[in-house]
């Protein structure tokens, strides 16, 4: 069976069942630095279970659309945030859980200045920059154990642009 | 008394007494995603004391060099990381502590892809983008109390380019 998933722009509302969009949308919660800086406060639900927060940097190779979606993964022990160190868009693919397996995936393309935080144990595709600039700061769990479950699709799933 | 501080490029070595440079320098600690992504693992010493980690977004107005350095601040209860959501350089100013007051400041300018983490209780100037693009993801302590100490300089201190 073959399936085609069409990308849509990333919005907080559509992404809410899977995680948080981290950006400057809306009014700042607080003005700081003598009015020179707006703070949009505490934008992500972080959960590192028995581990602790860490900041790593991912340097990922570009993908191109249309793209075959081979697999998704999830981290049972912690949330994972991707913060792009550039203004380049990237691809965000998530799937609802259906009895321990991923259901039909959803695909989003970010706007400049948008990061995402996958909630703990949410199925998502691997980091997929859509340009040569693939550097991300990643806030995830530092701790023991593999903290990784992969699911390889048998179906032929293609992500394509709208 | 007037003082002139000259900016230098940000390096991990020069910044080490104050915090961590968060970037992709060196070999990745691990290749992930079927070899498509390098993970530079756990690049920052995070310390949130009795609080917890949060991700906020700062949207700061641009500064220009030369710039008057009016004040520095520190956060006694936690570290604070600035992760630029762009490739634009920003200004990083820190100062050693000398008996509870800031000593002579040091000024750095970042390269594209560099973020910083100020260690807990390190004197630093406020977030200072050098371009109109002033969006940063900030990883700092979410918790009770003001977690802020400011020091306003009486001297006339100017930060200028090399």
TrEMBL record, chains A, B:
The protein's assembly and partners: Homodimer.
Key words of the record: Lyase, Purine metabolism
Protein name: Ureidoglycolate lyase
Keyword Lyase applies: yes
Catalytic activity: (S)-ureidoglycolate = urea + glyoxylate
One Pfam family recorded for the sequence: Ureidogly_lyase
Domain of life of the source: Bacteria
